Sequence to fold (124 residues):
Amino acid sequence: QVRLVESGGGSVQAGGSLRLSCAASRYTNCMGWFRQAPGKEREGVTTIYADGSTTYADSVKGRFTISKDNAGFTLYLQLNSLKPEDTAMYYCAADTRYAVADCSKSDVSEYIFWGQGTQVTVSS
Fold:
């Protein structure tokens, strides 16, 4: 079992920035963020694996940056140049089923553990 607690969401104007944090109860090989807007399906945003490799959805490349602390228990997501279409509930997610080399077998939106979410609202 992995407990995840997100924080840092809020309301900003387009072009603004936010930093999300996620405190994990233990270390996992596969971690990331997905988001879900009202009436829409979950969308994988970004992942970071235990070896430090990262992936990003095309929609956020160059604007969002995922990172973690050295112990791997706290995950961060820096959101820059925010757009109204980034408005969604953002969830931190983790999966314990895979070795690091196999993390990409599952989209982050399908990871088996996630937190309560933190709301990001971007106004135009």
Summary: The chain is about 0% helix and 50% strand. The radius of gyration is 13 Å. The chain has a mean pLDDT of 95.
